[in-house]
Amino acid sequence: MDNSLVLTPVGVVHSPVHESRIMPVQGVRGQIEIFPEFVPALEGVETSSHLILLAWMHRGERDLLTARARKISEDLPLKGVFSLRSPSRPNPLSVSVVRLLCRKEGGILEVDSLDCIEGTPVIDIKPYQPGWDCVFSATHHDRSVKIEKMGPSEYRQMLIREAVNYHGEWCPGAAIAVRVAECATRALGGDLTRPEVHLFCGGHPCITDSLIGITAARRGNGRLHPVAREENRGLECCEFSIKRYRVVFSISRLPEDIPYILSCRNEDLFSTRVFTT
C-alpha cells in the first residue's frame, strides 16, 4: 500500500516578515494570494470574518522533537513540539486563524493576525465557525512562568488578543480591561486563567466581556461572579480574588482615547485596594 501524502499548494503568503524569529507573537497584516486555478474555490469566502489558514512552514526543521518557546525566553524548559506552536516539527503544518479584511481582484485576500513569513505555501483555507471551532471552556497549562519571562509589550499584546477575540472589537472598555488585567497579574503573581482565580465583574459590558476573555472565567466553572462585592456598588468596579486575597479595582475614568488609556498611569484610570480575608 502506498502511504505517501501529496500536498498541492493552493496559494502563497505575502508577509512583511521574512524571518520567523522576528514574527510578532500576535502576527501581522498581510496577504494570501490564491493561484489562478484555485480562485473559483474562494466563492463565498467573504461571508466569513475569520478564516482557518493551513500552511506549510517550509523553513521549519523537521528533525526536532523538542524545543523552547524562544520568542518568549531561552530560559524556558524544553517541551515536546506537539505541545508547542513551533514551526519546527516532523510535518511543519501551520494552523492559524486570520481575520479577513477584504477580498481583492485576482484571488488576493487581505488578512490580519497572519503569523506566516513571506513565501509560505498555503495548503488550504476553511471558514472559521465559532460554534464549532471555538472551545472557550478549553483549559491549558499554567502560563505563569511563561508570562513572567515575557516583556511588557508582548504580554499586553497577548491580553489584547484575548480580550478582542471574546469581545469582538478593540474599544476603550477593552483597553481599560487590559490595563486592569496587567495590574491584576502583578498583584496575583501569575496567570489569570488559573482555576483558583475568581472574577467579580461590574456593569460595563465591554470591560466585563474583555475580562472574561482574558481570564476564561465562567459561571459554569464557578469562577465568574456577575457583580462586584456589596461595598463596591455605585462605582464601576471589578475584583479578582485568589484564596484569601482580594484585589479590587474601582474605575474612576472611562476615556474614549485608546492610546491615552494604554499610556497613562494606573492612577489616572482606577484605584486599587487589596484585602486579605
How is this structure best described in words?
There is one protein chain. This protein has 277 residues and is of the alpha+beta class. It has two domains: 11-133, YaeB-like (Elongation Factor Tu (Ef-tu), domain 3), CATH 2.40.30; 144-276, 60s Ribosomal Protein L30, Chain: A, CATH 3.30.1330.130. The chain has helices at residues 130-133, 144-149, 152-167, 172-188, 205-215, 258-263, and strands spanning 11-14, 28-34, 50-56, 66-67, 79-80, 93-104, 108-114, 121-127, 197-200, 224-225, 236-242, 245-251, 270-276. Strands 1-2-7-6-3-8 form a six-stranded antiparallel barrel. A five-stranded mixed beta sheet has the order 10-9-11-12-13, covered by helices on one side. The protein is globular. The termini are far apart.
What secondary-structure arrangement, pairings included, does this model have?
Blueprint: E1 11-14, E2 28-34, E3 50-56, E4 66-67, E5 79-80, E6 93-104, E7 108-114, E8 121-127, H1 130-133, H2 144-149, H3 152-167, H4 172-188, E9 197-200, H5 205-215, E10 224-225, E11 236-242, E12 245-251, H6 258-263, E13 270-276
Parallel strand pairs: 9-10
Antiparallel strand pairs: 1-2, 1-8, 2-7, 3-6, 3-8, 4-5, 6-7, 9-11, 11-12, 12-13
Beta-strand share of residues: 25-35%
For the biggest sheet, the summary is: 6 strands, antiparallel, barrel
C-alpha Rg (nearest Å): 21 Å
Tell how many strands the DSSP assignment holds: 13
Structural class: alpha+beta
What is the strand arrangement across the widest sheet?
1-2-7-6-3-8
H and E string:
EEEEEEEEHHHHEHEEEHE
Number of helices: 6
What's the architecture of the largest domain in CATH terms? 2-Layer Sandwich
Can you give the helix content as a percent range? Answer: 10-25%
Distance between the termini: 67 Å
Uncertain segments are: none
Give the CATH class of the largest domain.
Answer: Alpha Beta
Report mean pLDDT, rounded to a whole number.
90
